[in-house]
Give the backbone structure.
Amino acid sequence: MRRRELLEIGIVAVLVALAGIAHYAGANEVLEFFLAALAIAGLARLVGSATEQLGGRVGTGTAGIIQSGLGNLPELFIVLFALNDGLLVVVQSALVGSILANSVLVLGLAFLVGGLRNGRQEFHSPTARTIATLTVLSASIMAVPSFTHAWGTAAASHETALSLIAAGVLIVLFFVALPVLMHSAEEGQEREPPHWSLATTVVVLAAAGAGAAFASDWFVAALTPATQAMGMSEAFAGLVVVAIAGNAVENVVGVQLAAANRPDFAISVILNSSLQVALLLTPVLVFVSLLFATTLTLVFAPFLALVLILSALLSAFVVYDGESTWHEGAILIGFYVVVAASFWWG
């Protein structure tokens, strides 16, 4: 294990320890909230490093799927603890926020950094455009229960049943789209051979997963009092804080690839994360929530459903012309800031 990686593990361990001390010592809720969020972001990065090492043993395509799936592990824990506490608004906002953050904020950052460093970037990957199209279609399926409820159709009184049907369709479509997802993970990726032993990889991955479970519990415990103290809504906490902290791996990797002038692969990584949230994470949580007191449905607040559709459409629109500039990136980031600000109050 290299010195930089040992340092990374040490920093993450310190963050988790500080978050734990703040929680059990009864520290200020705002401090506990942000320390737990930092710990979750660090653990997400550590999970990414471990899965990269695992990927060197199983091939790029399979590794890409594993990395994207396990990269959502911290967010999964947050959502489960939030569901257990009945924080449905946080859960729904976090799921939409993950798609919004990757499709708009991270894509915008990649365009901005890549454009400033390399000028106009061109990409010709049909895979990226396919992923963008699939994301729009998946987001549309996710939004249908919200629109039936908002418009008072006959299905409005059957929101749980309709949500389960939509979730089942999304899971089936995930397996249908799996070849595309695996191809996007292989496309343009140069994966170096693993330099961790298999035992070290498994230990780090298990420790990071356990740490993510604890940090997520502390984060959710501090969420309500912290948001009240700051005047922040639970919707904003889910849409912005949870989504960014839980997707730290994709946030960093996608921008790094754009800066290295690999726009095709950068876009595939970023949009692939959004697609997996829509096709796999969200529908699985809909079914898992049946075991909790609070059942997760796909009936979002109307504005949240609109944000879901807009974020998917915008990412597809900017990808389809085959080129990106830093101006487009700046505008995407501006859109994200305005949307995020609109949720500050609820």
Observations:
- Residues 3-342 form a domain with the A middle domain of Talin 1 fold (CATH 1.20.1420.30).
- Residues 177 and 231 are 41 Å apart (CA to CA).
- The longest strand covers residues 121-122.
